[in-house]
Design goal:
The protein is an alpha+beta fold and 79 residues long. It has one domain: 60s Ribosomal Protein L30, Chain: A. Helix content is 37%, strand content 25%. The protein has three helices and four strands; from the N terminus they run E-H-E-H-E-H-E. Strands 1-4-2-3 form a four-stranded mixed β-sheet. The radius of gyration is 11 Å and the shape is globular. The model has no long low-confidence stretch (mean pLDDT 92).
């Protein structure tokens, strides 16, 4: 999940918006996010044919992408 200079969007609202625009390549979901949040992110990823990974935690995701607050998910934008 290391940040290798790919552009990302943070949080459910932005991820869902970019999924509708077909701009997401993959979603990283924090394992410690609320169950409903995880379920919704997985369903959205599957509905749009986008890969996803569950792992790490909200603080690790934030640290990996330079986010100041814990985040439940990060969507990697298509190149």
């Amino acid at each position: 999940m290391a940040n290798d200079a790919k552009k990302v969007v943070i949080g459910k609202r932005q991820i869902l918006r970019e999924l509708k625009r077909d701009n997401i390549a993959e979603i990283f979901i924090a394992a410690d996010a609320e169950t409903e949040y995880i379920t919704e992110m997985i369903a959205a990823a599957k509905a749009h044919g986008v890969g996803y990974r569950i792992g790490s935690d909200m603080n690790a995701i934030a640290a990996s992408y330079g986010i100041e607050v814990p985040s439940g998910a990060v969507g990697v934008l298509k190149a």
